[in-house]
């Protein structure tokens, strides 16, 4: 854990109370200069830390900071075996999980970050991951006995879990844009990226990583112009504990579904939230953009579409766009 992370952990433990720089330095066995640099870095990343002469530093008690203790406090008893690790900033939580998986980390590790410098979306797209406003997390799983087609269900499973969690915590209706995006009131609030690794010699599934990025709040200064029209957030106003609770709710609901594999008890939850069924969409296929009408989603989560020429196809993967 970096100096910045250890300083943040100490602030979180003493949220709402002032701690002198001298005390921080002594407890963490670092220099006063290192404390000052860590505080400045945290402040630059959006953490509400007050600095008062002769009193020290104080993390605002209303600050909504992701922490291991905060997430674990909301986990159900059946999820206590999960091992969340929280970072102030990483390149990518999926990348962090890959590193852990390749080093032999058992199932149940969860990388959680307050921001990402190189967040990844589907098809190599960048995922906007600013500090203090989002929840970025990836779950390391090592399922056994699944077919390649069943592995594809992890994205839809996560989409159903995230939608349920958002509705439980925010009381807002969450819709799913096939196959991996969550929308609220026509704005995208979450993207999901699942990745699987197979043994080169055995061909057997070694691990699956499910990456989830949620816009909890609107970032300071708003969303970048390139996504301003489509991006939204779950909560209207920050409040202490909301991000920890939402992260835990996602994990609680996802793990219930995961334990039922290879069955798919979440299929009804996914299908009923589809925002594209009965709508006209554009199918991005082989560098072409084809207009189509969505007829529905089948039991294997394939998207059944009818093209303008009358032909019908069930899409098992790919990308679609819809005018909101």
Short synopsis of the structure:
Helices cover 29% and strands 26% of the residues. By secondary structure, the chain is of the alpha+beta class.
Q: What report would you give on this structure?
A:
The radius of gyration is 21 Å and the shape is globular. It has nine helices and 14 strands. Helix content is 29%, strand content 26%. A hairpin with a 3-residue loop joins strand 6 and strand 7. It has three domains: 3-59, Winged helix-like DNA-binding domain superfamily/Winged helix DNA-binding domain (Arc Repressor Mutant, subunit A, Orthogonal Bundle), CATH 1.10.10; 68-272, BirA Bifunctional Protein, domain 2, CATH 3.30.930; 280-321, SH3 type barrels. The relative contact order is 0.12. With 324 residues, the protein is of the alpha+beta class. Strands 3-4-5-9-8-7-6 form a seven-stranded mixed beta sheet, sandwiched between helices. It has a five-stranded antiparallel beta sheet with strand order 13-12-11-10-14, with no helix packed on it. Strands 1-2 form a two-stranded antiparallel sheet. It has helices at 3-13, 21-28, 32-44, 68-74, 93-102, 148-151, 153-170, 242-259, 267-272; strands at 49-52, 56-59, 83-87, 109-113, 134-141, 175-177, 181-184, 187-198, 205-215, 280-285, 288-297, 303-307, 312-315, 319-321.
